[in-house]
């Protein structure tokens, strides 16, 4: 199955020879009773239902509820379940908290490990050779490409994920958000801020 | 010997921040791979090892690596043979072509 020579790894490529092959594998696995059609469909729906909105809800709750924040940092899966987000399974989750002293960034240098059970499938760039190579050596340069750079003097901590341990960033609550509702706060939390390449949106100016 | 997946700290160019909509076959590849884990047919670590052993690692797209690795593991474990996958792919291709 090798030997095709068109350029790869860029987004938007279609008509891969593997598209046909995985359909063939699906058909055989179902025929032999290794997997059922329902199990495959359930898994597709499970992943489609995961999204960064889950992470945003966890962060917003942690911002308004110090006790929840404590639980989120101590036992992420249990805290997620409180909000109806089922991240059960063998994978461990660790939430790393940004502070005025430390900014956290997550990467998986070896592959693409990501808190999928909470945030869904990782973005293309997270899986790219460039991000995986550079995030551990020059995280500030990488963050600059995403339009963010922590102030000088802030330590940047890079967390290299593994198959067994997945990280998510708890960003700092933006200034000027006093009095905002949990829902309004969640709307400020971007996917990229949960990975640490960026920070949450600033609130719209007070009218 | 350094393997192709061991990229941490290597020099590299700018990060391409464009994203593509996940295609149906990619969602299927994702689902089959994870469903096989849940069934206990294989583990995440086995899948990683299979990905890291792909000779064309750098040429394949992300979900092509997943699909190729899952196929190799299924063959390795004796659950499917390369021959029957080839044959079924051929059948599907013909069926689709006739539509």
UniProtKB/TrEMBL annotation, chain A:
Catalytic activity: an aliphatic primary amide = an aliphatic nitrile + H2O
Keywords recorded for this protein, A-Z: Iron, Lyase, Metal-binding
Residue positions binding Fe(3+): 108, 111-113
InterPro entries referenced in this protein's UniProt entry, alphabetically: CN_Hdrase_a/SCN_Hdrase_g_sf (IPR036648), CN_Hdrtase_a/SCN_Hdrlase_g (IPR004232), CN_Hdrtase_asu/SCN_Hdrlase_gsu (IPR023900), Nitrile_hydratase_asu (IPR018141)
Every Nitrile hydratase alpha/Thiocyanate hydrolase gamma domain range: 18-197
GO MF term list: nitrile hydratase activity; transition metal ion binding
Protein EC: 4.2.1.84
Organism superkingdom: Bacteria
Family assignment from sequence similarity: Belongs to the nitrile hydratase subunit alpha family.
Protein's recorded name: nitrile hydratase
TrEMBL record, chain B:
Source organism superkingdom: Bacteria
Domain annotation Nitrile hydratase beta subunit-like N-terminal: ranges: 1-92
Region (Disordered): 1-22
Database matches in Pfam families: NHase_beta_N
SUPFAM superfamilies: Electron transport accessory proteins
Protein name as catalogued: Putative ScnB-like protein
Protein species of origin: Rubrobacter xylanophilus (strain DSM 9941 / JCM 11954 / NBRC 16129 / PRD-1)
